[in-house]
Design a protein that fits this description.
217 residues, alpha/beta, TIM Barrel, two-stranded antiparallel sheet, 11 strands, 34% helix, 22% strand
Length: 217
């Protein structure tokens, strides 16, 4: 079972930074989840929100965003720093980025496993069209969207943890897919989901995630 750090708690390093990814791995995670958006000059930067410091990422060049605390990493930085030592969950927030992401992955393929994930089925379909070998993950938060996973060319289904049940885990495994779930920050929930056989747990709290399973043996 994979343990992935996200780091969205205020007392930890800022999410979607190299320091945050390092923190997650240093505290027991074997993988990390992060968000990618393209700048106007088509650089794939790590950021959850569409804006940085009031600047719209999609309409701003990378050089004009870089002064933002010198913390703005690119996908290429992550692949260089972590591609040979961590499982990577690369989430695409919007469409229109697919070719650049696939090109970056082909230039430096991650060696410890990865998945390109999205809430947007069209993004996953487009990546599959570009390169059918790229492992894909469908993310969903609401039950009304959950059934889409059976229609998509994915290797992993990534539902919100409240949607997971033993029956769903079995259905996903019966199709030969993995099930990862997010964002799990309670010890009881971590243990319950693990007992159901999920393949990956995504948490904001790497220390809790690691400690829970060290204590459980």
């Amino acid at each position: 079972m994979r343990r992935l750090g996200v780091l969205r708690q205020t007392d930890l390093p800022a999410e979607n930074t190299i320091r945050a990814l390092e923190y997650a791995l240093a505290n027991g995670c074997d993988g990390v989840e992060f968000d990618v958006r393209l700048t106007r000059d088509r650089r794939a930067v790590l950021c959850h929100d569409p804006q940085i410091d009031g600047k719209e990422i999609a309409t701003t060049d990378y050089s004009d965003l870089r002064p933002f605390g010198n913390e703005l990493a690119c996908l290429e930085d992550v692949l260089a720093c972590f591609g040979d030592k961590a499982y990577l969950d690369i989430e695409l927030k919007v469409s229109g980025e697919e070719e650049e992401i696939v090109a970056a992955l082909l230039a430096k393929p991650p060696k410890c496993g990865y998945v390109v994930s999205s809430f947007l089925p069209d993004v996953l379909l487009r990546i599959h069209e570009i390169d059918a070998d790229v492992p894909l993950g469908y993310i969903c938060e609401h039950r009304r969207d959950a059934e889409r996973w059976t229609e998509l060319p994915i290797t992993a289904f990534i539902p919100y943890h409240n949607l997971v049940s033993p029956r769903l885990v079995k259905q996903v495994h019966d199709r030969g897919l993995k099930l990862l779930t997010w964002t799990v920050n309670q010890k009881r929930e971590l243990l319950r989901l693990a007992s159901w056989g999920v393949d990956g747990l995504i948490s904001d709290d790497p220390k809790l995630l690691n400690r829970t399973f060290v204590e459980a043996g």
